Amino acid sequence: MDGTLLDLHFDNYFWLQHLPQRYAEHRGITLDEANRQLHQWFNEKRGTLNWYCLDHWRELVDMDLLPLKREVGARISERPQAKQFLQFLADKGKRRVLITNAHRAGLALKFSQTGIADQLDLVISSHDYGYPKEHPQFWRHLYRVLPCSPQRALFIDDSEPVLRAAGEFGIGQLLGISQPDSCGPMQSHTAAPLLRCFSQLMSDA
After folding, report:
1. One GO biological process from the UniProt record (predicted)?
2. I want to staple 173 with a disulfide (CB 3.0 to 4.6 A). Which of 63, 114, 153, 154 is the partner?
């Protein structure tokens, strides 16, 4: 979702700028000290389910993250043409399944800001299974509840490790996102072809 249907700018801004400032204020430490502590945790948690778990981060920083996210919630936005693409899929009779590492509480906030939930047929969070999308077990659980032909499925994601895990499971059609954060750099990797905008898929179909 984040970096695919939604602009990753909100998440990057929250975790790299807003949270460090609020954590420094909460702990009575300098911003540099707050960044050092948070980045240590980032490096330890990245790629695990706890990396995406708001309950886990609440315990670490001793603050409820949802109110902090709401403070900058105006930055939550869809990527260009995301809603048009979802409608395009519906018009083609395709099932639109959101498979995300996002915590359910964070999902609710972003859905309330964007309304994209109305254009999805099913929403699956990795927290439902206890494994992030980077882990093979996630895909095994997914296949049990979402029977389909993996070779025929199209999976779009902004994360290279996630795309590689999906490919190893057998998802036949993979696409990455060339610029998940509208204010960030272009991506470059070999896990999957990179998509610049959804109009490429709508015009090629």
Report:
1. DNA repair
2. 154
